[in-house]
Amino acid sequence: MSDRATSSVETSSSDNTPRGFARIVDGMPASDGAGVSLLRVVGTPQLDFLDPFLMLDEFKNDDPGAYVAGFPEHPHRGFETVSYMKSGKMRHRDSAGNEGVIADGGVQWMTAGRGIIHSEMPEQSEGLLWGYQLWVNLPAEHKMTAPRYQDIQADGIPEVEADGIKVRLMAGDWNGTKGASQTLWPVGYLDVQLDPGVTFAHQISTTANAMAFIYRGSATSGDRVATAHQLGVLSRGAEQVEITAGDEGCGLLFMYGEPIGEPVAKMGPFVMNTREELFQAAEDFRQGRFA
Ligand code: MN
Questions:
Q1: Is this prediction's pTM over 0.90?
Q2: Residue 17 Cα, ligand 1 centroid: separation in angstroms?
Q3: What angle do CA 53, 216, 60 make, to 5 degrees?
Q4: What is the pLDDT of residues 123-167, one digit of tens each?
Q5: What CATH class has 8-286?
Q6: Residue 223: how many CB atoms within 10 A of its CB?
Q7: C-alpha of residue 152 to centroid of ligand 1, in Å
Q8: Which residues of the chain are under the pLDDT cut of 70?
């Protein structure tokens, strides 16, 4: 349990120098749910938290034994879970009767708010299951909001293609195109594919934190290179972000968001501001007060 948010990036780029990778983070192999093998990229000792992002997991496996047990019934309170499927199908069910399948390029933006109990189970027993789960924190004023789901299939995600760049916008914006999801806090989540040597540029708020997870090839930003399965955490301070693909091109997830700047109290699936609120969450769950 940690009571304080820690700022992970201290370096700032000055004046008009575009942001570059301030550090490169390796993911950590982990197991979660009922034994799903995954790579934890944010939410590890190396990178505990990049406000407002609490966790990023990659699951990518063609061995059903590594994923088929899925994530049986569990609660959440106080933040949002964002599931993005690159390949394969995941069925979501909750105790309030909501149900849906996210498949092959679709995204689910789930606001847990004051509390849900759900399961996330692979809807396949063979082939490649490849997806991501991102946890986005909520400010105190939204932690106890009503739960909400945005299930968006692949064809509902805006896609922009030009000059060796393909961008899918799950949230946020890019070059005048807006993302598919409504968010309670200003965040962006883009799937960016670049031809060899091509530069992805974006202008974001000077106060936002930003990170890029490389899922294919390699990319350079500033004077650092990140390769597949590494996360580049961008320096702070400038509006301009520039990320350039290496010789084999690059696929990356680009995430940015305003830091919330509040204390973070975490205990498993609950993320609140104080220890007392965590105890209350556990008690409410025990007493059956979640939806
Ligand atoms: Mn969950």
A1: yes
A2: 39
A3: 70
A4: 988 999 999 999 999 999 999 999 999 999 999 999 999 999 999
A5: mainly beta
A6: 7
A7: 17
A8: 1-15
